Records
---
Amino acid sequence: MNTMFPIFLKMSEITTLIVGGGNVGHEKLAAILKNSPDAVVTVVSIEFGEELLDLAKDFPSVTLEKRPFEISDLDDHHICLCATDDYDLHVKIQEECNKRKMIVNVADTPPLCDFYLGSVVTKGDLKIGISTNGKSPTLAKRMREFLEDALPSETQSLLDNLKDIRDKLTGDFQDKVKQLNDITQKVFDKKE
Ligand SMILES: C[C@@]1(CC(=O)O)c2cc3[nH]c(cc4nc(cc5[nH]c(cc(n2)[C@H]1CCC(=O)O)[C@@](C)(CC(=O)O)[C@@H]5CCC(=O)O)C(CC(=O)O)=C4CCC(=O)O)c(CCC(=O)O)c3CC(=O)O
Ligand SMILES: NC(=O)C1=CN([C@@H]2O[C@H](COP(=O)(O)OP(=O)(O)OC[C@H]3O[C@@H](n4cnc5c(N)ncnc54)[C@H](O)[C@@H]3O)[C@@H](O)[C@H]2O)C=CC1
């Protein structure tokens, strides 16, 4: 059983620290920015890879700090992702995050992670997060591709219409819930 609880974070409202700016650091930063171009991220790394430098320059809310990690880097951040090649450092950061009640992801060490990144299907405002409980990130990626193809292109206009209707509905909460359930039932019945 996958006991993880998915939530959707407003990355512009919290601050994220990535430690390590090589290949894995680049992948994690790219995954965040693809979803949240307004994410407030600090990347601390002794060296930065070309790809990460190239990506970061287009995002004003990303700050790069070229130096070794310091414990005080954790002071100003809500979540932390470890992406160096130093396992002992990752253990130290994970312990310190736990002490501070910060949540941490350690890219290549699932047992040290408080949260995983997921595959993300996006159709306009609709977003679906996928996790395989860490069993197969490749299957998560394939499921994303499958769902991206399967979701109808009119998904966004359906959402826009439902938002208009939702704003115009009157009556008490129960009435609104019933009307919205009836309307969406009709949409899905039509498709069968
Ligand atoms: C536990 C987790 C923790 C975390 O990183 O957050 C984790 C861990 C590990 N990944 C590894 C490898 C690969 N990861 C990918 C891809 C993705 N990995 C992602 C998430 C997660 N990866 C979390 C679990 C998510 C879940 O619950 O399913 C995705 C979904 C999201 C993202 O990272 O953005 C993104 C797909 C995005 C997309 O395209 O949709 C590919 C495939 C590829 O790149 O084509 C490979 C190579 C093939 C393979 O090994 O499967 C290794 C072995 C490293 C080694 O060999 O040493 C570990 C460590 C281990 O498992 O021990
Ligand atoms: N590249 C990949 O696709 C994969 C890598 N891994 C593992 O993930 C880890 C990272 O891999 P890569 O990103 O490829 O390595 P990398 O060598 O490209 O990047 C590591 C980065 O960490 C930085 N760093 C090291 N010590 C630091 C410190 N004390 N403070 C701040 N920054 C520090 C380095 O300057 C470097 O930029 C490695 O342990 C690797 O074995 C696992 C699976 C796949």
---
Amino acid sequence: MEPSRVGRQTVDAYRKALATAASAAAYAVMARGMARELLPPELRAAARWAASALSARLGMGGRERRTLVVRSQQAGGGVGREENLLFDAARTYLASRLDPRAMHRLGLTLARARDGHGGAGWRRVLFLEPGDSTVDDFEGVRFTWACVEAPSAGGGKKKARKGEPGTGGDRDFVLELSFDAEHTDVAMDRYVPFVMGAAEEVEQRDRELKICMNEGRSWYRVSHHHPATFDTLAMDPELKRSIIADLDLFASRRDHYRRIGKAWKRGYLLYGPPGTGKSSLVAAMANHLRYDLFDLDLAHVHMNTSLQWLLIGMSNRSILVIEDIDCCCDAMSREDGKAPARTGDSGGDDEFGNGNASDSDAPLPPAKSKIKPKSKNDQVPAAEGITLSGLLNFIDGLWSTSGEERIIVFTTNYKDRLDPALLRPGRMDMHVYMGYCGWEAFRTLARNYFLVDDHELFPEIQALLAEVEVTPAAVSEMLLRSDDAGVALRGLKEFLEEKKQQAMPEAKQSEEEAEAGKA
Ligand SMILES: Nc1ncnc2c1ncn2[C@@H]1O[C@H](COP(=O)(O)OP(=O)(O)OP(=O)(O)O)[C@@H](O)[C@H]1O
């Protein structure tokens, strides 16, 4: 059917509906339905405009309406027209709110995406089609979002997002936000910022995480698909809960940190024997908060200026990890050989006369006392003169001006080897001991590996775990040996019995063997 005939027919149908509609409300419902059913997309916007003009004339509700037009780009010609951040944010926000069960018509595309564990998957993207609208209630005010096709504000070169209606030529898609005029302040002061914030949250949640490793003065970035989460982490449940609560509180406290004038950062010191899950915990923290990881290897930082560049080059919402700090900066190997004596505030000169580095412009202060850099193998040099204390002061100073959320994590196998300056209050906010595999940690592993909550071998394993020091890594390794829970658990039981035997003093061993012989 040719477009002009379609147009005439639909306008006739539209007139008929107007004449027969008993009330303005009935008219509005019918007009919307008819527009959706009958009109080609290009006429829908005009019909919507006519309908709203008529409903205003008919005095529907008697309220003055206000409409904000949100274009993809700033209106006005000229070079350098900026993208309109609200347009992108509104699309993201609406995509997260649109409910396919509640709408007659919706745009849908599937985009390729990675799932949280690195596997390939699909990401669903919902969007409003031109001519359609949806409502959103906020603080008791009803806001209506509508997508309309409009002449381009200038070139229409904005690229479409994957699968969404794009723009091109002289047509553009515009989002209209309408509400009762009396709520203009709510819309401008609270609803629009709320939409921006909610969109940022969604993007943060959906984006692919990165792990970044230092290379000279810059970071080398790769996708981060570590499967560890707080669900898979085997550790004391109470400690796990307190870490999650601490992270959540931190992430929600932007205003708090601003008010008290402190850098929005939090420091965690993870310590414990090798194989107890310190690296897994860091990965779980990153996955929980959806933060990127910056794995700083101080052995490859040879100049203080490089360190400065690296820290400046970190993105917001990230975790800076320095592993095995006892290896890269051994504070006890100072020239005078004494442990630092002073404790107290973190301002002013620190124990090593590093000076107050909280001025963000200050270069990393050289340590007066020489700290011998030491790698795990005692052979890799670290940045000259860096002390952990100086490093922390420097980071504090640098980060305090950015106002961005950052977490710093130090890991070590030997807490007792650390510079006491690092351990004093206010330096590392939370000290987390990752210990040997206890009963609760084992149960988490058994659940992860075999989906079992109980087994006939559990009582024996529980008793053995109370006597034997074994890391979660070693237990995981035993559980991996078979897909059959019974076989794997029996293997673990034998392994624990053997460890128990090995740990026993010889006299006790022969005593037990004699007892066993008598029996
Ligand atoms: N607490 C744990 N919960 C779940 N899995 C664990 C845990 N601890 C260790 N594992 C398993 O053992 C492997 C090694 O652990 P991980 O590297 O996290 O230990 P680590 O404490 O960081 O060791 P290191 O001190 O040597 O760096 C992990 O990939 C994981 O499979």
---
Amino acid sequence: MSETAPQPQLYVALDFADPKLVEPFVDQLNPGECGLKVGKELFTRGGPDLVRRLVQQGFPVFLDLKFHDIPHTVEQACKAACDLGVRLVNVHAMGGRAMMAAARRAVSESSGSPALIAVTVLTSMNQSALAEVGVTRPLAEQVSMLARLAQEEGLDGVVCSALEAHAMRRIFTQPVPAIVTPGIRPSGAALDDQSRVMTPSEAIFAGATSLVVGRPITRAPNPAGVVSDILASIASSD
Ligand SMILES: O=c1ccn([C@@H]2O[C@H](COP(=O)(O)O)[C@@H](O)[C@H]2O)c(=O)[nH]1
């Protein structure tokens, strides 16, 4: 198992269509309080330089590109991700054992110490969406099966919904696993396209180690205020 840097309890998902919006937004946040998640939309528009700038500003960065390809390609992509100095990288567990082993090799050999985690079942999916892609076993079992595969290949944790966080703690038994949960909604917030959701305090209580929150923060009139509220609500659930 690799020695990884500590993860923040909150990653703010920077799902902006225009990279120019990132700087003024990020200026409202404190790198000592939260990390930033760069996903497919912003990375495709802003590129690696944007990621490097966020790292230089002192933010823990989760590069959420969910690699899913043949093992060699994922190994090389993981090397490139590690070179950016990010705190957290991920692959899709559905890429299989050999692909996760290749990712593990790449990240372990990198000079930084990002955590490497595997996406189990996307938080936007429910049981019927899973059935439509041919998976008929109960969703929670599918999450656990993929998590066990990731654990056997030495990954540091998973992306799952907070509904599955407790089960993940039994699979990843290291002192500080990375149980990273999107699908977080403060009570009363719109669900948008998420299916498997919990509030921030429920998620931490259930065993999540890092929450990923996007639209409830980025679309709020006072994003820094929502960040403070979330941090205050999870401080009492620790
Ligand atoms: O299963 C997953 C994996 C990744 N995500 C990402 O998290 C954020 C969630 O954003 P919200 O606006 O809070 O819904 C987004 O960037 C997704 O790509 C996920 O939601 N579920």
---
Amino acid sequence: MSASPIDLYALVPCAGIGERAGAGGPKQYAAVAGKPMVRHTLDALARVARLRQTLVVLSPRDDQFEKHVTGTTAWVAKVGGASRAMTVANGLAHLRERGANADDWVLVHDAARCLVQPAWIDALIDACVNDAVGGLLALPLADTLKAETAGRVSATVDRARKWAAQTPQMFRIGLLQEALAHAGDAVTDEASAIEALGHAPLLVPCSMENFKITWPADFALAERLLRTRP
Ligand SMILES: Nc1ccn([C@@H]2O[C@H](COP(=O)(O)OP(=O)(O)OP(=O)(O)O)[C@@H](O)[C@H]2O)c(=O)n1
Ligand SMILES: C[C@](O)(CO)[C@H](O)COP(=O)(O)O
């Protein structure tokens, strides 16, 4: 009997409250260039042919997704947690319940990184699909890096070999479940949890356009970039 093929899934944590963005509600539903932010994200993922399925993970209290996103083929589960790490862990358990295997890959991608492009996701898959660990899209730091105390510079931090982590982050589902169970709630991305198990995720260079909408001013920048895309 032949082994079952390895599938690739996307998991979109979409259960945040968007406190820093000050959009008057969860930022993933704010309109950017004519569409709710999460719709841009899902449309980009839907154009990646190698993804078998996308799972969107919502807050159990979410009453906006269905209003804002109609006609999606993505799976939806209202199993989000109090932290991003919990949302991802609960989403992984849901994927397993729906038939995903421990050896399958998952690409975890923030709903709030709505400028992601299919070509960047394909580049991540190409780089990681034969890798023992997996990896993430990221950007080498260009600016000089300062540490702060009470609004003043306390130190200049060596920026050599430092990268800003983006998403998607691509790992085997089983390894990521083990890593998140081990790391707990404090990790802010999947790679940190994998690192805590002693692995070294692959850094795959991406674009600064793959930024996360976090602050109020980010909406206008995202709008400008999306409206001027060819
Ligand atoms: N408990 C949480 C927290 C965050 N997220 C998701 O993780 C991504 C990145 O998180 P972030 O930008 O921090 O979003 P928010 O938590 O919504 O923002 P803030 O921290 O400003 O409240 C977002 O797509 C967000 O919806 C999630 O699914 N579950
Ligand atoms: C996963 C992430 O987007 C990588 O940069 C980031 O760590 C999320 O952090 P947040 O504090 O939850 O926005």
